[in-house]
Each structure stands twice: as C-alpha cells, then as structure tokens.
C-alpha cells in the first residue's frame, strides 16, 4: 500500500513539472545569445511590439484591463453641467482670400488690370482682397503666368505693364487685317480696318544674335504644323513672313526672358490658334521697335 502511494506522488510531481515547462519558451538571449535560459511565452512578441502596451491609436483589450470590484457606496449625484460662458463673438474674416498672398506690386497690378479690363472687380488700394485675388488669378491663367496663385509678383507686374502700355495705333494699320508686333514691349495684336480686332497679348521674339527685324511684311506661307530643319522641332500654327521667321506657338515657357526665339514671333497656344484662324497668305505684318538687348 505504501509503495502504491509513493508511486502516485511521483506521477503527480512529474505532471506538475510538465505543466510548468509548457508555460516557458526558449530564449536565446539568456546566455549571451547562445541559449541556455527560459522566458515566459509572449516575451518575444513584446520585444517587437506585438503585445506591447496599447498606444493612443490602439484599443485596449478588455482582458488586459483589471475589472474594478463593485462597491456598495451610494452613487453620488452627477454635477450640473457648466453654463456656457458669454464670450465675445469671433470677428468675421477679412475679405482677403485665404492662401492668396499679396505681392510686392499689388497696387501697380491693380492699376494695370483696371486699365485693361475684363478680369473682374478690382479695388485699387494696394491691399489684397478676395476680388483682387480672383482677378489676378484670371489674368495669370489667361497669359500662362505660373504659378496661378493670385500674387502680384514680378512676372505678373511685367506682363500687365507691357499690355496696358501698348499703343495699338502705333503700327499704322490701314484697311484689311494687319498683325502688329511691338518688339520693345514684346506684345502683339490684330487690327482690321483701323480698329482693334484682337487685344494685345504677350509674345517673345528673337534673342541676342537672332534679332527679329522691324518692318512691314506679308504672310507668304502657312502650315498648321511645320517642321524646323535647322532646330529639329515642330512649329505649331506656323505663319511665315520673312527670312525663315514667322508666327508660331511657343515650344517653351514664354515668360522665360533668359531665352528667346531664333527670330520667330512666339505665341501662347490659344493666341496661336486665334491668329491662325485670322491670318491668310497675303495678310500684312507690321513690326515696330526693337527687343531690348538685341
């Protein structure tokens, strides 16, 4: 009988040891990375954050949070909600557009855009407003001034000034359709029977070494898409008038003054399309002035 009891005790002790061993896992760190220790299951996960304490964007599991023991104390009455304080009303935002910065040429641009007309309501006071911003953005989109952000910066000022100060009568257009180019201001417009048919727009002519000459010429060749042999580039809406020079859509950013054409008269896309529709072989082209630096 005593032998049986001892046998039962040995079996029970072995079972306890097996259950305890099942709650541990091998940890290679216990001996400097060479094995020989144990660590509770889940320690490796905690090391990588898999079972770490929840952060602000992680939910806490109910099993991880100890449940408070119920108490028999009476529930205290909930405090009264605080009355809203009587703060002063917030001032209404100013009429200036949010995210529409004011440029260093604000008043001048306002003045020139008012003179040009057609870009919206503008107040000439040197202060940016929502209406001013919308008008300047409309102007920038029309003449491909980048970025379109409503800021009266140097390029916007330069283009507005050139357009607003162009004298449309200076090219002496007579009867019929005449294409006029002011080389000094780098602007171009169209006259018909002595009246403005297309208002001045921006252009870019020959750079130093490739000066576009002043004079009176006539369009003698047109092609909706001409290939330039010497420069290996397509020239959309090509209208030639002298010495390999003519109107065509620009192939680069028109407002980059560091470069220029090889004598041609560069146009923005929309202007090139308009001029193509208005022009024909025999149309008169008058160039006045001289591009600065050429």
TrEMBL record:
Domain of life, per UniProt, equals Bacteria
Q: What segments bear the compositional bias annotation Low complexity?
A: 73-88
Q: Which GO terms describe its cellular component?
A: extracellular region
Q: Where is the composition biased (Basic and acidic residues)?
A: 55-67
Q: Which residues form the signal peptide?
A: 1-25
| Involved pathway(s) | Cell wall biogenesis; peptidoglycan biosynthesis
Region (Disordered), start-end ranges: 28-104
Does Cell wall biogenesis/degradation appear among the keywords?
Answer: yes
Active site as annotated = 248, 264
Pfam families registered for this protein in UniProt: PG_binding_1, YkuD
InterPro entries in the record, alphabetically? LD-transpeptidase, LD_TPept_cat_dom, Peptidoglycan-bd-like, PGBD-like_sf, Transpep_catalytic_dom
Task: Give yes or no: UniProt keyword Cell membrane.
Answer: no
Provide a Gene Ontology MF annotation, just one: transferase activity
Supply the PANTHER family for this chain: EXPORTED PROTEIN, L,D-TRANSPEPTIDASE
Q: From the Swiss-Prot or TrEMBL record, give the protein name.
A: Murein L,D-transpeptidase
Source organism of the structure: Micromonospora endolithica
Give the classification, highest ranks: Bacteria, Bacillati, Actinomycetota, Actinomycetes, Micromonosporales
């Amino acid at each position: 009988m005593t032998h049986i009891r001892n046998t039962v005790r040995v079996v029970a002790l072995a079972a306890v040891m097996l259950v305890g061993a099942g709650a541990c896992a091998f940890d290679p760190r216990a001996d400097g990375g060479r094995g020989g220790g144990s660590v509770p299951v889940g320690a490796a996960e905690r090391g990588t954050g898999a079972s770490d304490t929840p952060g602000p964007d992680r939910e806490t599991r109910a099993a991880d949070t100890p449940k408070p023991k119920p108490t028999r104390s009476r529930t205290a009455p909930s405090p009264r909600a605080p009355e809203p304080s009587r703060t002063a009303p917030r001032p209404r935002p100013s009429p200036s557009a949010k995210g529409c910065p004011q440029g260093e040429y604000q008043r001048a641009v306002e003045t020139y855009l008012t003179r040009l007309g057609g870009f919206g309501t503008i107040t000439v006071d040197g202060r940016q407003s929502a209406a001013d911003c919308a008008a300047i953005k409309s102007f920038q989109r029309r003449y491909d001034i980048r970025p379109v952000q409503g800021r009266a910066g140097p390029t916007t000022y330069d283009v507005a000034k050139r357009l607003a100060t162009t004298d449309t009568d200076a090219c002496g257009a007579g009867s019929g359709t005449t294409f006029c180019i002011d080389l000094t201001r780098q602007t171009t417009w169209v006259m018909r029977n002595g009246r403005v048919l297309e208002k001045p727009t921006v252009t870019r002519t020959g750079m130093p070494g490739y000066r576009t000459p002043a004079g009176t010429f006539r369009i003698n060749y047109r092609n909706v898409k001409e290939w330039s042999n010497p420069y290996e580039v397509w020239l959309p809406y090509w209208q030639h008038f002298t010495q390999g020079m003519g109107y065509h859509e620009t192939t680069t950013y028109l407002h980059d003054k560091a470069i220029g054409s090889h004598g041609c008269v560069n146009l923005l896309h929309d202007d090139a399309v308009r001029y193509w529709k208005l022009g024909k072989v025999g149309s008169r082209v008058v160039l006045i002035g001289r591009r600065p630096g050429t």
